[in-house]
Fold this protein.
Amino acid sequence: MQKSNPTGHEKTLKIDDFIVSKTDMQGRILYGNKVFIKMSGYEENELLGQPHSILRHPDMPKIVFNLLWERIKSKKEIFAYVKNLCKDGSYYWVFANVTVTIDENGSSRDYHSVRRKPSSKALEVIPGLYSKLLSAEKSGGMEASKKMLQNILDEKGIDYDTFILSLQQ
């Protein structure tokens, strides 16, 4: 399926909206709730079976998804701010919590994500940070972006989780 070209038009979640989706172990969409489908602009049958990355906005630095996959493959949850691309080219920001579903044998079965509206505090910080990380990636690859993110966290004296969660409060 062809990805959309960004238009710069922003959609916003309502404070009580929750986007829920589930993917298989390769990141293909198995389920999306009504809010997810509506915000994406796709029909449900267009989303199911597609890689979740169909919603990846080009403004998103790869390091964020690298961290996400690293965590969930280790059966750990992660919180992240994500800018998603809609079918019509518009975008929307989410505060995402991604977890792994563990089966009765202790094996990873699928991934589950619940997303909600990011705080205004987060939206004052994250777009600029992501722009810097993306610029670092374009000039020096993902390692440059990873190093920049770690330097920013070190300067603040906090880890990734503490930083991300502090922006949502």
